[in-house]
Amino acid sequence: MDLSIVIPVYNEEKNVALLHQTIRNTLDKTDFKYEIIFVDDGSTDNTFNILNNLKKVKIIKFRKNFGQTAAMMAGFENSNGKVIVSLDGDLQNDPSDIPKLLDKLNEGYDVVSGWRYNRQDSFGKKTFSKIANSFRQLLVKDPIHDSGCSLRAYKKECFSDLQLHGEMHRYIPAILAWKGFKLDEVKVNHLPRKFGKTKYNMWRVLKGFMDLINVWFWRKYSNRPLHIFGGFGIILSLLGFILGLSLIVARQFYGLSLGQSQLPLLAVLMVVIGVQFFISGLMADISIKNYYSNGRRTYSIEKIVEK
Predict the structure, then answer these.
(1) Is residue 217 helix, strand or coil?
(2) Comparing 179 with 133, which gets the higher pLDDT?
(3) Given 3.90.550.10, 3.30.565.10, 3.40.50.620, 3.40.50.10540, which CATH number is that of 3-221?
(4) pTM here?
């Protein structure tokens, strides 16, 4: 199998048949041997029944709605293609862009992400997306413009040791770039939604931001959490010690009354919290060592050459 097309869907009964036909119309013009995988993420409408009537399709049906990240991972793990292409099921990604992604992938990249440079979304959605992309660029510094675009092409080996949860599907390129895979992007079409309702809301924005913090922390401190927790702890304890020492000097040599002051309590509190931070860093370091002792590695090998 050359190519696997993975499409998570949730309540897209009016879109899935059209999308399936559009994908086939595009790929039947190529020489690729391909499969189309729909992941029904617990739809409550007629989506599954419509999918079940399609030909040349694999359907993965969830018992309930687990979210887009879980649906994507299920599709990735059950695909057989050497290359995996993901896209949304709302007809806003254009399947005719798939060959463009594959051409860029053949230039020597492991991941190619779509860039919806001319988005057909509401002003509010585009504004929140720009804010989210600004935070992402600040924290994870991946070289793409549009982390929210689901239209992407991956080599199969990208998913050999990838674990996702929450709303982390939008940060897959950033995670893979951190692992050392080669990443690029191409401009793709973005079509206005014709049928159904968007699943994008403020709660998803909040969850996405929390997952961004998670990706940032894992990227920088996944194998050395003591550096951040211990660093905060040492700085806080040191500041508390300096404050306490200054209060002792002021009391002993300048007669400063501390009976009604909260500063001594603040100094003690800073030292105690600093110690707790340091201990948390030690415990996190122990947990990380246990995590990697199960065969996981802190590096990713592209190839081994023997002569």
Answers:
(1) helix
(2) 179
(3) 3.90.550.10
(4) 0.70
